[in-house]
Specification:
- 2 copies of one chain form a homodimer.
- The first copy, chain A, is an alpha/beta fold.
- Chain A has 2 domains: 185 residues, inorganic pyrophosphatase (n-terminal core) (Alpha-Beta Complex), CATH 3.90.1640; 127 residues, Diaminopimelate Epimerase, Chain A, domain 1 (Roll), CATH 3.10.310.30.
- Chain A contains 10 helices and 11 strands.
- In chain A, the strands form 2 sheets. A 6-stranded mixed β-sheet of chain A has the order 6-7-8-9-11-10, with helices on both faces. A 5-stranded parallel β-sheet of chain A has the order 2-1-3-4-5, with helices on one face.
- In chain A, helix 2 links the parallel strand 1 and strand 2.
- Chain A starts with 5 loop residues before the first helix and ends with a helix.
- In chain A, 45% of the residues are buried.
- Bound molecules: manganese (II) ion (2 copies).
- The site of one manganese (II) ion has 6 residues of chain B, from loops.
Amino acid sequence: MREVTTAQAAQMLREADDILILTHQYPDGDTLGCAFAMCRGLLSMGKRARVVCSDPIPQKYSYLYHDMKECAFEPGFILAVDVADAPLLGSGLSEYADRVDLCIDHHHSNTKYAANLLLKEYAAAAEVVFEVLLELDVTIDEDIAAAIYTGISTDTGCFKYANTTAQSHAIAAQMMRVGIDTYPINRLMFEIKSRARFEIERLALESVEYYFDGICAVMYITKQMLQKSKALESDLDGLTPIPRQIDGVQIGVTLREKSDGAWKISVRTGVEFNASSICGRLGGGGHMRAAGCTVTGTAREACDKILKEIAAEREDERNSVH
Amino acid sequence: MREVTTAQAAQMLREADDILILTHQYPDGDTLGCAFAMCRGLLSMGKRARVVCSDPIPQKYSYLYHDMKECAFEPGFILAVDVADAPLLGSGLSEYADRVDLCIDHHHSNTKYAANLLLKEYAAAAEVVFEVLLELDVTIDEDIAAAIYTGISTDTGCFKYANTTAQSHAIAAQMMRVGIDTYPINRLMFEIKSRARFEIERLALESVEYYFDGICAVMYITKQMLQKSKALESDLDGLTPIPRQIDGVQIGVTLREKSDGAWKISVRTGVEFNASSICGRLGGGGHMRAAGCTVTGTAREACDKILKEIAAEREDERNSVH
Ligand SMILES: [Mn+2]
Ligand SMILES: [Mn+2]
């Protein structure tokens, strides 16, 4: 499908009305921040617009739409934001999968399933949305600023991750000048943990074991831990990076027991090792620094399987150096 | 002592040479970022300058000065950065306590012990230093940019805390445009935990207890945990906020066993309770949202003492509402 410029995307929206805004399933701060920023901007232009999501929107994002009324209409234009591929709309929005008029996104993995405003070097789709809103001459009020900020802050891990750019900070500065209070947003996004998340985290931390003189740390998330903590899938976000946060750990491994008893292994590495190569030895794959594979057996057996491949990888590294 | 403007501070530095730059004891990213940014800027002007600190500089900050040579001279001008009061220079620098020619700072608690460039609304002293360097026409190279960024990022908790301003983000954007890679800095500052810190954290998490239907969480840091984890004082930073990060917890309590067997209690509250008022009941004090007190007894007795006062505080709150 064709690529469009920011100006062209703005023109398409200017000509549209009754705009249905689609977010991706398991919504995050970027897709929701984009959606409500666009929705508020379009409403301010006198258009009808509403946001839909295949999944329930987690309570912590309610400040994004606290004051908004439901807007009923037959969709005349369909906009997808931060949605890299049509199936990611989720089952609840599958009826729109072939009918998206415009997609505003930043994912490298975008499949170009619609007319696309795709800016891959942007840290958040909210940065793209911000430029479209400026092009539309929308006044950035506090609600829009909070939504844009939310998208940028969540996709950059509060400006910590390597995807953060000067532009991310520059837009955050502009959003703060509008008058928003960013700490309450960041507290909701990054500080507060559900009780179940807190419980699963402490059980997982207790399970950490060190191997190879401490350069490898292994953490378990078992079915028993999930039951004990009452943790849901959404409570497990951000657990796999933990082993690699321990000083001296070059290979962080998380072993997650699936409902069928198999183990999903996540491997995170520093510059010293190739996670994708380690997981490839067990039929998995991924990126240089983050990869995964699946194995069967008891916890001990699963751990031994990945340790054996890490040992082999270390051996190969050593041989290739000499 | 007199207040000076940014232009006046720059003029003082322009006229000075053999500049000794003092940081505060237990150095953090802001005092070190300020010091090495200033030092590099002054060196680039053809002056002699060096940084001194009463305490050893933690290894994680070594990127700030990795390439710098020791510069020997008899001090002709003494500059303190991010040092709110002369005693905070520490015992190793006490000989300079009465001889500081210029202090560049942002602390509300600054005691004006020297000619002062004090900008209290700035999130980091590094933001003040940045303005002084611009006034001095110093070219902001990557090393200076990394130092300024470090100061801002550490003092704002990576742009998360309530002290973050639009200016903090705007300067971060400028530093990134110089070409620095911020993720490695933030990983060092915010992600990597010493093994001892990791151990003390997991022991502390295991100890968490809930009271009053989960609106209060209590966490312990005992002498035994300190021994077992081999944690140092510097490993305990950032533990006391943990109980208040659990969803639904309005009063987070940390009970820390001191070497003499007494318990140092830290209380963190949300908007619902006054931490200072709770701790005041046990002879302590502090701020509305973060306060402390000290009690004696066993762990159980110490916990019961603070719970009793929390119950009394809840009772008083209830009565004052009706
Ligand atoms: Mn995104
Ligand atoms: Mn500071």
